[in-house]
Amino acid sequence: MLELLTVLAFFGYIYYLRNYADLRTKAEKEEAALAEGILMFQNQKLDEAYRYFDKRIQDKPKSSIAYLYRGLCKEALGNSQDALQDIQMAVSLDDTFFKIQLELGRLLFENDNFSLALTALNKAVTLGENRHPEAFRWRGQTYLKLHQDEEAWEDFATEKQIAAEQAKNGGLPKVEVKAPFLDRRLIASMTLVLFTSAVVVSAIKNAESVHLPYLVAVFSAISIGFAEPRKGWLLAIMQSLLVLSAYLLFTKAPESSAQKELESFSLYGSIILTFAASFLGGFLKRAFSMK
């Protein structure tokens, strides 16, 4: 049974790293995967870019980014109506990506559909988190067309403010600057892991069933993931190693075979649950952050 738990832990860890360490959204991953075609579009190789994204859509018909850039290619080639249809399809596949909402709002504006443009641009402003002055510029122009002058000038002022701040910081918004990996918050979280690891080991040694150690491991790991959604994988590894090392090195082996089996299940089960629950904690933190 221990061999089975070891195999499950190994494959669980691989899945964990594959799906948890990379916290990009689906659209961001697609954008990275389609970088070759995006570069063609940016370099004005429009026919090549169009064929590239058209082929990608045939291969993966649910790729929102492929629809977005095929639409932009169509617009640049003079087919704005088909371009709008492609970008509307992109929105139907993923309405949470900033650039998709921005381009939809811009195209609707240029087609004189100002009410729908405003709806899309409102979403773009929300998704952009005050980092993209162009969203405020397009929404301001839309407000003007809808005779909402006061809101328009507020957006134009915000656009200038964001642009000035980005210019001051070398063209990059402050929020894009990467913080050091080992910061005070991570150090504090690692200190907390020392405590939670001791609690898990204590629960393993004193519990009469596997339920208490599992609950302790789950709640401590959820806290890890919630506190550090991007670095929780490191803390989960740290807690697992600490729990395993402390149990093997600093606790007395049980005398009865029944107690030994109970503690083994509690130990290895807690380690597996640590990874799963820290993923859950990171997911919960991202879910709350999106509200």
From TrEMBL:
SUPFAM superfamilies: TPR-like
Amino-acid biosynthesis recorded as keyword: no
InterPro entries cross-referenced by the UniProt entry: TPR-like_helical_dom_sf, TPR_rpt, Ycf3
Entries under SMART domains matching the protein: TPR
UniProt keyword list: Membrane, Repeat, TPR repeat, Transmembrane, Transmembrane helix
TPR repeats: 30-63, 98-131
Segments crossing the lipid bilayer: 186-204, 210-226, 233-250, 265-284
Protein name: Uncharacterized protein
Species the sequence originates in: Dyadobacter luticola
